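Think of the structure tokens as a kind of shorthand, similar to the way a musician reads notation: each symbol stands for something richer, in this case the local conformation of the backbone. In the example below we present two proteins back to back. Begin with the first one, reading the sequence and then the tokens, and try to describe in your own words what changes along the chain.
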Amino acid sequence: MELKLNKQARWSQKHLDFLIMHREAYGVDISEEAYNKEISNINRGEATLRCTKNQKCYEIYNEEVYIGDIVLEEDNEISIIIFDEYSGKGHAYNAITLLIEEKKKNYLEAVVRPSNQNKNIKKLLSKLGFINKNEVWVFKKEVY
């Protein structure tokens, strides 16, 4: 597995469709008008950036296949997307572990919304050492 920082990460139809399908989990609601506008941008080769200047977008590759993203906010909050066809195979665990180890992250936060129907996300975060503090899961590694 490899994390590749993409400073110019742009929207694709795959990203948009994923977020629409999992809108409750991510707290994102893309209107039909916004969706159609971005699809038009994509078709013209003018897709907009999907990360802000305060975010780092790490694309996740498994055996050179692009399988999702970890977005790291300036305040160390993470969001992870593993595309449906690759989910349930341990990729999220491996990607977050890699982020912690390679990027030397001693503190991370992950928000799990009550509307998130993915029952495995809490088990995953616990397994990684995150502690639940009212929907915000916190990872803190002691540094000696």
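Once you have a description of the first chain, move to the second and do the same.
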Amino acid sequence: MEASENYFSGNGQEISSDIQELEAPEGQLHLRFFVPSGDEFALPAMGIREVIQQPPDRIAPIPNASPLLLGTINFRGQVIWVADLGQFLGEDLALNTERPEIPVIAVEDQETILGLAIEAIGDIDWLDVDQLQMQSNVPDRMAQFVKGEWVLNKEEASEGLSAPKYLRLLDQIAILRSARWAA
């Protein structure tokens, strides 16, 4: 490999005019995802231990457990519960487990870990929590677990061009500590 003299010359101060200055992200980092109904939710990245793709045959069903629970998995040597997040939030539609892998979000609080099985992983985005609005039209069974929502298509919705599309922020600590697991 030949080295070009032009490549190594200079003091590093000369930066191409094509390179633009990076902007600092605004807000906090969140994981966006979908439940079986197609509704989109977000969780703060700081509360997520890991996101895994779990084969359904590796989720061990537990007899006489809550119908919200799919079973248990071995998560890095620790046995943790895996729950159908959509059904936990009050959806009628159960998660499709007849597929090669199920996305599971492992959330943690004070050494308690729970796997939340979802339909699909979305993006990881910087979301401005100052733009978070009070929740609207949230079913009662879901309300205690929703911190607020962002309207994704605010301009189109305000002009009547489309119905509002919401991204709801979930409270993983409220989910982990819910009495609903004992039912």
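Compare your description with these statements about the second chain. The first strand starts at residue 28 and ends at 34.
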